[in-house]
Amino acid sequence: MNLTDLKNDWIKEFPQPMMIAGPCSAESEAQMLETAKRIKDTNAKVPIFRAGIWKPRTKPNGFEGVGVIGLNWLKKVKQEYGFKTATEVANAHHVAAALEADVDILWIGARSTVNPFTVQEIAEALKGTEKTVLVKNPVNPDLALWIGALERLLGQDIKNLGVIHRGFSTYQKTKYRNNPNWQIALDFKSQYPNIPMLIDPSHICGNRTGLADITQEALNVGYQGAIIESHSNPDEAWSDASQQITPEVLAELISNLKVRNSGIAGFDNEMGRHRTLISDLDFQMIELLSQRMKISEQIGKLKKENDIAIFQPERWKVITEYATQKAKETGMSQDFIEKVFKAIHEESIEKQNNIMIDRK
Ligand code: PEP
Ligand code: MN
């Protein structure tokens, strides 16, 4: 059996778009029950409650999750409020404990998807399970690795599969915590339109303000749901405080979402896809320009310290020649590329001038 043969009827059990919400981490029974109650009270269509029990943290000595005791709290959330439950598993012990506690949906985190040994261990521990298993994209933009993780699960007869797009790490700080890099996720979607894809705007944005836009963008290009971090008291959260929202804000976000005719390769959908990719590239261009300007400012400082003139004709010549050559290679007009580079160069000179005369 191949990934392309999967039926994935599991998602039809849920209202569309399928929403998973809950805190980044389970912290206490009271925090879990209060968050669950408040999500329920909003009447938002959220059938699944998430909470991290074991937390993979970048540095040691941070809060690494409450461990198995948190599984009891997930059980209570299920019993008292009727949610299905979801948590992350990162090794065979986690799998055994989560299955024992009858967690409904398990996901493999971005830091685990990168490691084939870890994925294999999890897959073998889950062998033949009927539960739904969701695979987050690996932290690095590697489509084959993401698909490989799904193949390892299918290799152990795990057939209720889905993926979560949570963005990709970059060294450069950008407005996103993890760059969405839509191209990779959409390439996945076009290869495996049968595998449900959810968006995780919380880990893409790293803040509260961008969540609605990212979620809407994903629905526009046919994603089937979202996993969003929601906490009864986000500012005091023990992990990912800056990106979590209250249940009430979550409900508002959900009620503003416009559900498109997802999955149908019609005009709207194709248009949406192209627009998303264009925004992605525009964003990357702006980021690159801003990095270029910062370097240019550093050069301005050096020029000032060493009494060097700002405008260096031979430097400009190198740039024009390079632009001409690149225009040829990429099939764009020379005129256009020159215009773009002239504009960039002029802005650079302006910035360096400001440094020379100490104008801010
Ligand atoms: C999470 O969902 O809380 C989490 C740890 O996410 P990721 O694996 O995407 O970093
Ligand atoms: Mn988190």
Automatic annotation (TrEMBL):
Gene3D superfamilies associated with the record: Aldolase class I, Chorismate mutase
Superkingdom to which the source organism belongs: Bacteria
Keywords recorded for this protein, A-Z: Transferase
EC annotation from Swiss-Prot or TrEMBL: 5.4.99.5
Pfam families, per the entry: CM_2, DAHP_synth_1
The keyword Transferase is annotated on this UniProt entry: yes
Enzyme class: isomerase
Residue ranges constituting the Chorismate mutase domain according to the UniProt record: 265-356
PANTHER family: PHOSPHO-2-DEHYDRO-3-DEOXYHEPTONATE ALDOLASE, PROTEIN AROA(G)
Protein name, per record: chorismate mutase
Species, as recorded: Chryseobacterium kimseyorum
